[in-house]
Amino acid sequence: MRILVCTKRDLAGNLLLNRMLPRLAGHDVRVLLANRVRAETETVPDLGALKFFDQDLPVEVLFTLLDSLPAPPAGAELLSFRHLEERFGVPIAAAGHIGNGALTGAVRAAEPDLVVSVQFGFIFKPEALAIPRLGLINLHSGALPQRAGVNPTFWCMLEGEAEAACSLHWITAAIDAGPVIAVRPTPIDYGRSFLSNWLRNYETGATMITDAVDRLARGETLPAVPQDDAARVFVPKPTPDDFARFRALGHRLVDHGEYLALLRRWLPAAQPVTAVPA
Description:
There is one protein chain. By secondary structure, this protein is α/β, with parallel strands linked by helices. It has a single domain, classed as Rossmann fold (3-Layer(aba) Sandwich). The protein has ten helices and nine strands. The strands form two sheets. A seven-stranded mixed beta sheet has the order 3-2-1-4-5-7-8, sandwiched between helices. Strands 6-9 form a two-stranded parallel sheet. The protein starts with a strand and ends in a 15-residue tail after the last helix.
């Protein structure tokens, strides 16, 4: 099967590819990385901070340093984009803030049987939707239709819910409105930060995607359960007041200790320290 995976050039996108590409071995996979330029990250400090930890630091520092090495560090659990490309023989192209025409052109050039969109941030126009013979599927980090829109995990934590969720759905012309393939919950750990819970939710979603690809490869038909349009709720982008309420509940957006532990998954395994002779 020829598959085009569309995701972001950031920490979450890289983590998703680390989880997906081993299970997609045997398929003809291409990856398109994009990053939407969102003005609110400049005006809402907490959104800017999340962008720093998810995009700026890993892309500009961690992955840049790792990509300068001829091979992945010995014992590293996770790989940078370049090392993923080399390990799995998968072309990975960075497209930045891709326009509608350019996105349609990229889909057409890939000639995919299936397009997988996850944490991508760009809208596929009708011309692009008509290209893949098996269609386009999207992983949304919220339970549809009740948690459409952006940052569902944040709102789940703010409202004290026990679970976040991922929804895998068919992409249609309407945002987050396509028929649902599956919804899978992930328990929220309130002892951990939003970033940790958000990434853990996406790791659940990566398995949903590869499970769906396996079914298609076996010739099965994926579910397509229509959403109840009347039940759809688009959660808004969090405001500074929303972030203040989040912290007032004792929640953390990012925990530095958790974050350092996460980054170590891309680094060499710890080695015993040898004493330097006096």
